[in-house]
Amino acid sequence: MTRIDLLGVPTDAQTFDAALDTLSTWAANANGRRYVCTCPVYTLMVCREQPAAMRAVAGADMVTADGMPIVWLQRRLGYPAERVYGPDILLALCERGLATGVRHYFWGGAPGVPERLADALKARFPTLQIAGTHAPPRADIGAAPDADAIRSLNAARADIIWVGLGSPKQDRWMALHRPYLDAPLLIGVGAAFDMLSGGVRQAPRWMQRAGLEWLFRLAQEPRRLAKRYLVYNPRFIWLVLRTYGLRQG
């Protein structure tokens, strides 16, 4: 894992297997207190605009390349990199943790979503240990940590708390609550809750590999995702060309 600066935002260049090994080790360390942000283009661009998001992402113990444009840019700068995608890492860590009884908590999503996610994962991994599920109210992150959430999450004795609040909300939530939670590892996975619970279709693998997942998602949710993809993606491309094009071309 090599931390590198992309347009002023820290990201970690690594292979998927290396990330999985690191996260498995962190989840097993009862004395650890780590959190992980998954970073597509949208998160990177929001970090450039919102200081609170930048502080949260910069403070993370791992910032994965969640989108192919991030991977391609890392590779263009000379680093061996693979996509470490939220839904994939969630499934892989659930499977790997079966042998050691890793306990998972699913925090986030709309009402009913974390429960459907837990049911889908139990159907896939019958011996999966689920510490709890909760869909918190759709409210902004305040300045102070949520004492009720901390008590509930600590009582569940989870090893991994999966946070599905969407970026940058989930990144800010993890940064704010990390000092008070006993779980060794928090991982923000955004839309993975909806995708793996069956609420939102995932793009075919060929579209993911080609960097076209944004187009698939935009076709499903045009109103919600229009600004994310039609404004931020072109800005990202322009910034990359301006910042790295001549140097690396």
Description of the structure:
This protein has 13 helices and eight strands. The protein is α/β, with parallel strands linked by helices and 249 residues long. The radius of gyration is 17 Å and the shape is globular. The protein starts with a strand and ends with a helix. Helix 1 packs across helix 5. Strand 5, helix 6 and strand 6 (129-134) form a beta-alpha-beta unit. The chain has helices at 16-28, 41-49, 51-58, 68-76, 86-96, 113-124, 147-156, 169-177, 192-197, 205-209, 213-220, 222-230, 232-248; strands at residues 2-6, 9-13, 34-39, 62-65, 103-108, 129-134, 160-164, 185-188. A six-stranded parallel sheet has the order 4-3-8-7-5-6, with helices on both faces. A two-stranded antiparallel sheet has the order 1-2. Helix content is 51%, strand content 16%. The protein has a single domain, classed as 3-Layer(aba) Sandwich (Rossmann fold), CATH 3.40.50.
